[in-house]
Amino acid sequence: MGSIPSTPVGHSIKTSKDASYAGVATPDLGNTSIFDTKNTTRLTYRRLIIIKEKPQDPRRNLPHHWLYWNGYNSVKVQVNDKGDVMLTNIGTITVQVTDQDKALEFYTQKLGFETRADMPMGPEQRWIEVAPPGAHTRILLYKATSEAPGADSYEAAKTSIGKSTGMVLEVEDIEATFAKLKSNGVPIKEEPQKQPWGWWGEFADQDGNTYGVHQ
Fold first, then answer.
1. What is the pTM of this model?
2. Which domains, from first to last, does the chain contain?
């Protein structure tokens, strides 16, 4: 069964190269396979990087967990005392943007999202996470560089801008939500309409990245 290395954040291991997160050198684990608790599914992450580590709490017998970033999205992984790996939730989903300052302003002021993280990630990038109030999964507003594209390639990252994010946001009152979005100057791509599966509409962000909205 595959196992997660116990190397703490910032500690070096023998690897082909290191990556950096928020100014801290963290080991690049290369191609690493993670198995689920039943050892039936293997998830392979390229450029798997330890971002955060929470040690085990012996008083409450809580498992270790790590937050990994594979160059696209992040996933939290827990390891219990038997060494079994437990995927617990989706951490971040990457949306490529052309200007991080403009993106942050749009998502917080026009969409009403919260800023969950905003920290340096090298000379030309920041790690910016936003999310609707109360949401667990965050959107990573990512600006690609040739050295760290956050996608299969720099070209792929650039061409993904202005297309569907594949994300669907849930609302309680879609008509009131779209009225508010319109008053905030958010581009509406598809007005709300009732469908067999419920109400549906679409809007776009400052770069034309589109989101579905469902009620």
1. 0.65
2. 1-161 (no CATH), 162-215 (3.10.180.10)
